[in-house]
Amino acid sequence: MIGDNKFLENFYNEYDEDGRLENNRLGRVEYLTTRRYLDPLLTADCKIAEIGAGTGRYSVTLAKEGYDVTAVELVQHNLDILKSKLDGSENIKTFLGNALDLNMLDDNTYDVTLLLGPMYHLYSEKDKVFALKEAVRITKPGGYILVAYCMNEATVIQYVFGCNQLKSVMDLNMITDDWKCISEPKDLFEMVRVEDIERLNAAVPVERIKLVATDGASRYIREYLEEFDDETFAKWLSYHFATCERQDLIGATNHSLDILRKVQVR
């Protein structure tokens, strides 16, 4: 279970999560793409829950924009940073909590629920389904659930081959014969394919609105992104936005965003 993952807590105690989406262009592509699809779902009076809020890049920003936000974060270090960004004027409630146990949050409460990190760190299908069920449970019928995933093929291309880790991952039995990554809590991140996401969705009462590549090919040219002048970077964003819904390219993105709507069960 995610709550028992001391590897994860140790990682985020040292990692600059606060700067990941702010201090480089790769992170900006992911953030801007997520906001591009999130913002049209927001109304002035909507209630937003973010499960796995990290250091608050989304939660704090949305609260400062005037939205009613509830932020749940597993790692105390991250939650402390999130709280440090608040000046008391925001309409935000914060909880130290687990995506697998949202008992502090009521059923059918939120117009939009963000699950932008927990699926990265859940290693069994049972836990992934349960986390998704919890996110759906707290969302109003007709409300939206945005779920982020780390994708398998980008990891195989960039890490296994690009970082010359083929021998090590094969020696450690971290890859299947059909090139599916096998992760454990000590490995920190869990990778999925599109068919895995489809199987998870089939277990909950949702319909898909869109499945989007949030960084697309950006990580493949990461070193060039920082060297682009502003005009070229703007053109890259234009290209990315024009192609991020291309389903033939989804599998090769590092991060995907599944945009779901909760349907009424009869």
Automatic annotation (TrEMBL):
Gene Ontology molecular function: any one: S-adenosylmethionine-dependent methyltransferase activity
InterPro entries linked to this entry: Methyltransf_11, SAM-dependent_MTases_sf
Domain Methyltransferase type: 50-146
Keywords: Methyltransferase, Transferase
Top-level taxon of the source organism: Bacteria
Entry annotated with the keyword Protein biosynthesis: no
Any Gene Ontology biological process: methylation
Protein name: Class I SAM-dependent methyltransferase
Organism listed in the record: Ruminococcus difficilis
